[in-house]
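Archive record:
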Amino acid sequence: QVQLEESGGGLVQAGGSLRLSCAFSGRNFNSYNMGWFRQAPGKERESVATINFSADYTNYSDSVKGRFTISRDDAKNTLFLQMNNLKPEDTAVYYCKASRQGYDYWGQGTQVTVSS
């Protein structure tokens, strides 16, 4: 059974930085493709950044490219999202997702609020 727990969210001023973490509980973290998603009030959940199981491929949404960096530490079973130059439009609940063989697992989310 896979469980995911996000942390690191909070309130930050525009231009600031936050680092989100997603702790993976379960087996074989290094076999899962991982991703960060976000959902703002009244909007659908959207993909922010993804990283494959071997960490040799990453993908970013156009809105965060150049500002956010996704990474993983397989020794610590942890996924990260470094967010720099945050903007008010980045305000959302951020979720991590683990995917493997057609199965998806989601965390409960962490709130990020960026004030102008």
Observations:
- The chain is about 0% helix and 55% strand.
- The mean pLDDT is 97.
- The CA atoms of residues 10 and 106 lie 20 Å apart.
- The radius of gyration is 13 Å.
